[in-house]
């Protein structure tokens, strides 16, 4: 913090015991196998790609991915749209967030699956949807595009500008 005092004081720490609850829940997690089932069944799930437009179209292939592209039937809403970069650098207002995510065209009870490149930006969007906007059925695919891109048997889409690197 600018202007703050610096010292070499040792801060005492006390040990504690932490254990996970016996019954853990992965309510916000989904894996690639379940997504492939959903794609095959034509269930009415929104698959929300939270990357930027260049990643979504396949124009840009980030490090770690085997190829460029997206999961079929994905809808793009860049995670960064939720941040007020021009002003407070915090989340945009509730009203602005409602407007942004209403582009998905679903109710707050409909299933939504978020993904990005490696699960970080989609975790941010999962937080926005569940904790700020009150969506009830959101799952984060944390393997995201990095995992999906390595499986040749998994379907994917890309735009005509994509160069497939293998």
How does this structure look, described?
This protein is an alpha/beta fold and 166 residues long. 25% of the residues lie in helices and 8% in strands. It contains 5 helices and 4 strands; from the N terminus they run αβαβαβαβα. A 4-stranded parallel β-sheet has the order 2-1-3-4, covered by helices on one side. α2 (53-57) links the parallel β1 and β2 (74-76). The longest helix has 13 residues, at 120-132. The radius of gyration is 19 Å and the shape is globular. The mean pLDDT is 91.
Integer average pLDDT:
91
The biggest beta sheet is recorded as: 4 strands, parallel
User: In terms of structural class, how would the helical and strand content be classed?
Assistant: alpha/beta
What percent strand?
Answer: 5-15%
> What is the radius of gyration?
19 Å
List the helices and strands and how they pair.
Elements lengths: L31 H10 L4 E4 L3 H5 L16 E3 L17 H8 L10 E4 L4 H13 L5 E3 L3 H5 L18
Parallel strand pairs: 1-2, 1-3, 3-4
Question: What's the quick description here?
Answer:
The chain has 166 residues and is an alpha/beta fold.
Main traits of this protein?
5 helices; 4-stranded parallel sheet; 166 residues; 4 strands; single chain; alpha/beta
């Amino acid at each position: 913090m600018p202007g703050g005092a610096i010292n070499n004081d040792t801060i005492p720490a006390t040990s504690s015991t932490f254990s996970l609850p016996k019954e853990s829940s992965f309510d916000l997690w989904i894996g690639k196998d379940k997504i492939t089932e959903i794609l095959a069944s034509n269930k009415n799930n929104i698959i929300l790609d939270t990357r930027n437009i260049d990643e979504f179209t396949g124009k840009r292939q980030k490090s770690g991915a085997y190829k460029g592209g997206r999961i079929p039937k994905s809808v793009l809403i860049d995670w960064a749209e939720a941040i007020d970069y021009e002003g407070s650098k915090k989340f945009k207002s509730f009203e602005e967030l409602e407007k942004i995510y209403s582009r998905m065209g679903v109710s707050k009870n409909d299933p939504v699956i978020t993904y990005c490149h490696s699960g970080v930006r989609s975790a941010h969007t999962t937080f926005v949807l569940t904790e700020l906007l009150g969506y009830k059925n959101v799952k984060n695919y944390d393997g995201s595009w990095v995992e999906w891109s390595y499986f040749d048997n998994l379907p994917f889409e890309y735009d005509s500008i994509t160069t497939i690197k293998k």
